[in-house]
Amino acid sequence: MVAIRRRSQAQTQPSYTWASVEALSQRLQEPTWVSDLRRQAWSIYESLPMPHLEEEWRRTDYRHIRWDEAEKLITPNGATVEQVPAKHLEPLVGDRQGGLMVFVDGQLVRYELADELKAQGVIFCDLLSAAHDHEALVRQYLMTQAVKPSDGKFAALHAAMWSYGAFIHVPRGKALEVPLHVVIYNTHAGASFGHTLVVVGENAQATVQIEYANAETSAHASYIGASEIFVGDAANLRYVSLQDWSRQTFEFSHQRARVGRDGNLDWIIGTMGSRLTKAFIEVELDGKGATGRVSGFFFADKNQFFDLDTQQNHNAPLTTSDLLFKGAAKDTARTLWQGMIKSLPKMQKIDGFQACRNLLLSRDARMDSIPGLEIEADDVKCSHAATFGTLEEQLIFYLTSRGITRPQAELMIIDGFFDELLQRIPFDRVRERLQEAIEAKILG
Amino acid sequence: MTATLEIRNLHARVEGAETEILRGVNLTIRAGEIHALMGPNGSGKSTLANVLMGNPTYEVLEGEILFNGESVLEMEPDERSRAGLFLAFQYPVAIPGVTLANFLRHAINARMKAKDPDSKGISIPEFTKLMRQKMQMLGIDSTFAGRYLNDGFSGGEKKRAEVLQMAVLEPQMVILDETDSGLDIDALRIVAEGVNKLMNDQMGALVITHYQRLLNHIKPHFVHVMFAGRIVESGGPELALQLEEQGYERFRTKHLAAIEAN
Q1: Which residue in B77, B89, B106 is closest to A408 by CB distance?
Q2: Residues B12 and B34 in one domain
Q3: Whole-prediction pTM
Q4: Residue B189 distance to chain A (closest CA, Å)
Q5: How far apart are CA A431 and CA A93, in angstroms?
Q6: What value of ipTM does the predicted structure carry?
Q7: Within this chain, do residues B118 and B237 fall inside the same structural domain, yes or no?
Q8: Which range of residues forms the domain containing residue A73?
Q9: Are A152 and A51 in contact, with CB atoms under 8 Å apart?
Q10: Which residues of A touch B98 (CB under 8 A)?
Q11: Is B239 helix (H, G, I), strand (E, B) or coil?
């Protein structure tokens, strides 16, 4: 008889225990209030089943993750910034950045902050140091208002197990002219729990770029992360997040922004890497007149699976949201976008828009888009759209009839498809990076 | 060498379909000649244009297309283009996100790279100069180049964009597929003037039209009448006028029996 390893016999969830959390707390030598948060989160984690049949999870099968590999906590092993591919370190635009933090295997290995930003009182540091040095500030925001342990199994696990991350605080009224840049990079497989906490004070302004990547490995890796973004009253934040994980990485992340009165968030999200990504991307428009714009790029190929859940919550009147996701899928890849615009009752004069446009590049690929509206006010303007297209032969014929080769013609049509999205991105280098990703995916 | 396009006993149909649309077309066009191809709807005019350019929607069953003595049947559309053939489309498709200028620069670069694989392509200033010159010649507004290809273009703008592409790519043999369709008289005049400016004795043209009107502006040397997939009559410009007066009915009665018998 041949023994077949059945799925039911494989490990279906991480084998962490309370002892794992305690050991982590010990190693990090963190303040007690952080350990207390972990304890609360752990009990929530234990009370929840692994998500599977819930509406937002039922199309997402992540059971092929090999937890025995993906749960091993990544610890620093002496790797330096030299291991990080240069493209992740480049500034968004031009050749200047206000600050750079590079985490390799969870350890801060490179730190720069321009004097002018120091003088403005900007806090730009690793989250653990911030938990010690800026306790009041961090305590106010860390997993209490944006991403909460109760948001789900992985949010709770993250809250119990997070081990590194970036804390950015821009004081009230300060306008930063140069971007801040955070790089998260892992050199080996295993579990990575990173956290990003960005707080832009009232009437302040900043540009933040965050990049996620790791080395290709044969073993599975996981990133169980959270990003919390606070845009104060009348503040402006341009937030760019580029994900370029290895082909064996599984990302489970919660990313939530809260925008105050007359605040303005311009959020750009690029999803290129990973074996599987399950990301919750949510904007809470809390103050009257708040605006949230979200521009998402995704391109899945080979056996990638991207599941992007977006939510635009209009919690105040006169709020505006504008979300555009554009993606392509090639080979046997699958993508799923589930969008939702919500408004609370009596939130009049809100303007919400969401669209996901899909370009299907292979018969074996599959793309789904599920827009949704839950509006409890009557004087609103909300709309949504999902479109699907392919590389039409008549377009290719038109381009090739002018002497352009077929591969070039296909690339032009695909580039053209993404142009609408790229036009929303004010950073040359980000546009170039996405264009490079498009080209690599098409040729690869 | 001067350009010659020879179409010999060409039979073609829509890929996978039963019925032949082209049923033995013979036609030779030499440099310096303008040939008009007229005929009722469904006679196969546009199919001929598409087959000449290599549209993969159609398959050739029999016959030959020789361009400058060489068969183009095995050539892809891009190779035919680089060899010097040009089709001005009846229905140019919109390609959002790709500007007319970017598109034409790629088309020029594809030509340069085919000749010399190490070519870096045309420089931006050189290209800009070329575009400006061609657009001035055709009286086209310079903002045109920055617009997405045919995206939101009016009927007239689409046809002018086709003529601009022809001006920039300088083909030896052009096929204008119902370039007049849907154009008002002013747009028609502008497009026809453009074509006339580009015509020279090194270039041949096949002007496909349903109506005689276009031929008041683009004067053909030869006129052919297509009916049921064949050229059934050829003559000088007077043939077009005759058609205008009598319509296609005469051809129907005269040639239908012969074609059915075949």
Answers
A1: B106
A2: yes
A3: 0.91
A4: 25
A5: 10
A6: 0.96
A7: no
A8: 17-287
A9: yes
A10: 412-413, 415-416, 419
A11: helix
